[in-house]
Specification:
Number of helices: 6
Distance between the termini: 76 Å
Strand content: under 5%
Largest sheet: none
Helix content: 55-70%
Protein name: Mitochondrial nucleoid factor 1
GO cellular component, one term: mitochondrial nucleoid
Main location: mitochondrion
Organism: Solea senegalensis
Number of domains: 2
Pfam families: UQCC2_CBP6
Length: about 130
């Protein structure tokens, strides 16, 4: 029976979209990692709570199938701030890039800046 569950989760992972703008910080990537860790032995993995596993699968399948988006359509594609989906996506991807740069550490950042040639550096405005 766990072989069937494993195959169902693999199929769900294949269908789940990845957002390349988030650089591996999206829900699709997280889901793939969790399935890989939960089913370490593949089809031979013994599941301690099959009901909970089935419930998780059904929940994720409903999210992936946009069940709730169709059941509860939005009047507008903006948030209460008036920001569109595309603007939110752009802001989020830029924020993730900044956080990743901050995680690099001081030494790596300094070495990258020192290794750049002067032509690559942005021009400064002349001082008055």
């Amino acid at each position: 029976m766990s072989a069937t569950r494993y195959r169902r989760f693999l199929k769900l992972c294949e269908e789940w979209p990845r957002d390349q703008t988030k650089g591996g910080h999206d829900l699709g990537t997280f889901l793939r990692q969790r399935v890989a860790s939960a089913f370490r032995e593949g089809e031979n993995t013994q599941i301690s709570d099959p009901e909970k596993c089935d419930q998780m699968y059904e929940s994720l399948a409903r999210i992936n199938g946009n069940v709730y988006r169709q059941r509860f359509p939005r009047a507008r594609d903006t948030s209460f701030t008036g920001v569109t989906v595309e603007e939110s996506r752009l802001f989020l991807s830029e924020s993730i890039q900044r956080v990743d740069e901050d995680k690099k550490g001081l030494w790596k950042t300094v070495m990258e800046r020192l290794s750049k040639s002067p032509e690559d550096a942005p021009e400064k405005a002349p001082e008055k």
